[in-house]
């Protein structure tokens, strides 16, 4: 990350000094491969659902960089502020989400927290009731991809609000 990536209003010297590694420059083939996986994972999935999944995983992983990016993208795509605020507490606010979105969010929770309890059969079955096999595979790939992006952003100390897309 360069200082040009830092939005005005932040301390440029402090922000630049927290950057650990420009992953895209240091490992361009790997970076392009993750971009390719990301693009492939989204194919055939509802763009609104994609953003909800990415937001939820970013919440769980405490990735401010990705959370900022995906809430911004969701707003641009027309997502409501109300639903964006409810993603973090979706189980308690399930009525804001369709049954299909709830199933996707449940799978996102389980896969993102896989070390806690694996992916319970009930969670998989709930998702399988709303997604055909191909869609379920795409959804799983999307969850794996956002978890990868979260880990890249966290490990390299990306700062929220510095997305250069």
Structure description:
The chain is an all-alpha fold and 165 residues long. Helices cover 65% and strands 0% of the residues. The chain contains 10 helices and no strands. It has helices at 12-17, 23-26, 28-42, 47-61, 64-76, 81-86, 99-112, 114-117, 121-128, 133-155. The longest helix is centred in the C-terminal third of the chain and has 23 residues, at 133-155. The radius of gyration is 16 Å and the shape is globular. Residues 1-16 have low confidence and may be disordered.
Task: Please give the structural blueprint.
Elements (H helix, E strand, L loop, with lengths): L11 H6 L5 H4 L1 H15 L4 H15 L2 H13 L4 H6 L12 H14 L1 H4 L3 H8 L4 H23 L10
Helix pairs in contact: 3-10, 4-5, 4-7, 4-10, 7-9, 7-10
Provide a concise account of the structure shown.
By secondary structure, the chain is mostly helical.
